Amino acid sequence: MKIQNLISYCYFTHFPYAILPLMSENMTIAEFQTFIRERYFKTDSTRGIAKTFLWLSEEFGELAHALGKFERGDTDLENLSEEFADVLAWLTTLANITGIDLTEAIHDKYIKDGGPEGTK
Q1: What is the mean pLDDT of residues 21-40?
Q2: Which CATH number goes with the domain that contains 99?
C-alpha cells in the first residue's frame, strides 16, 4: 500500500468528517457532487430548494463583485477563486436536492451527439 493511501485510510478511518484535506486536486464533477452530498445533504434538503436558491443567488452576487474588482485591475485571485468555488458548491447543492446527476446532465447536454450546435 502506498504511503499516501495508508495515510488516507488512517485519516478516513479515524476522522471520517475531515475529508477536505485529502480530496484530489483533480477531482471529477461526480466526486465533487458526492462530497457535497455526503457533507451537506441533510441540512440542504431541510432548507429546501427556494432558500438554497437564495444562497446561490447571494454567491452569484459575491462572484459578480469579485469579477468587477478583477475587471478594474484588483487581481485578488484568491477571493475570485473562492467565489467561483462557492457558486459551484451551491449549484451542486441544488442539483443534489433535486436529484440531478451533474455528470449525466453535462454529458447529455454538451457531449452526447456532439452537443448543442453553434458557439457561445
Answers
A1: 88
A2: 1.10.287.1080
